[in-house]
Structure formats: C-alpha cells, structure tokens
Amino acid sequence: MILDTTHNNKEHKNIITDLIGRPYTFMESIKMRGVGSKRMIIENVSPNLQQHLNTIADINYANIEMRPSGILIYINKGLKNYTWVIPFYQLVIYKTNGISIHAQGKFVHFKNNTMFKENKVYMDKLFDVKVKFDERYSFQY
What is the mean pLDDT of residues 81-103? Predict the structure, then answer.
C-alpha cells in the first residue's frame, strides 16, 4: 500500500500502525543501534511505482524504516513524500547488484554505490529481523 504522506494524516498513521505496528521507542531504537537507513539511490522500479518517482532525469532517493512487523519505504518526489507500507509476510529481498525489495506486485531496486555500502550494517540487521519474524511461523515438513 502506497500512501501520500506529504502532510500529516491521522488516518494514514492508523493504517500504518494496524499493518506493521507502532514505531520502536527511543530506547528500543538505541538498543537496536538504529531502525532507519540512510538515503539510497533508486535505480529501477516496477511500472506501477513509476508514477511516484521524478519524471525528469533527477536522482530518486528512498529511505527504509523498520517496524516490529514490517518496513516503511519513504520515497521523495520533488516536494511530495510517499510511503510504501510492507508487512514482513509480504516482503521479499533479493541481493543482486545492489538490493531489490519486492512486495505486493511492486519492486524497488537500489543502486550499488557508496550510499548503499554505508547501509550494509542496516541491511544485515533488516535480514536478521525478517528471519526472526519468519521463524515464528515456521512449519515442520
């Protein structure tokens, strides 16, 4: 689900909280050594996400924020902000040349450059949290 979060909206806040939980508290985020990534350059997106990016040759940036049951991807388009809400059970991450996040029939591919390399520790943390979430629902074969 993609929301226009340029302006504060209680409805959007409630939707996000219902889908992926409340934000981590200040102390929890310190214990986790951060729950948000630095900005990364978007290299490619799915056609149904194209409308939320700059149409001219500007560089598109995005940030990722972890929540207890999912992630938020913040996309900036000029003066507008969009938030893509992804619960962990829908999240699929591919580690290709850079990183590719897939969910809900959409994807975002982040460019492999120095900004991405600065987020390596954060991405490892995101993988660990996703694995722990998936282990709660593991089934025996």
Answer: 91
- Determine the Cα–Cα distance for residues 60 and 54; give it in Å rounded to an integer: 7
Sequence letter at residue 105: G
Q: Give the whole-angstrom CA distance, residue 44 versus residue 111.
A: 8
pTM of the full structure: 0.89
State how far the Cα of 124 lies from the Cα of 99, in Å rounded to an integer: 12
Burial 10-26 (b: 16+ CB within 10 A, else e): eebeeebeebbeebbee
Task: In whole angstroms, give the CA distance from residue 141 to residue 137.
Answer: 13
Is-contact 64 72, C-beta < 8 A? Answer: yes
Q: State the amino acid at position 53 in one-letter form.
A: L
pLDDT tens for each residue of 7-32: 998 999 999 999 999 999 999 999 98
Tell me the one-letter amino acid at 84: W
CB 77 within 8 A of CB 94: no
Domains and CATH numbers, the chain: 2-135 (2.30.29)
What CA–CA distance (Å, rounded) separates 62 from 64?
A: 7
Pairing of strands 40-45, 70-77: unpaired
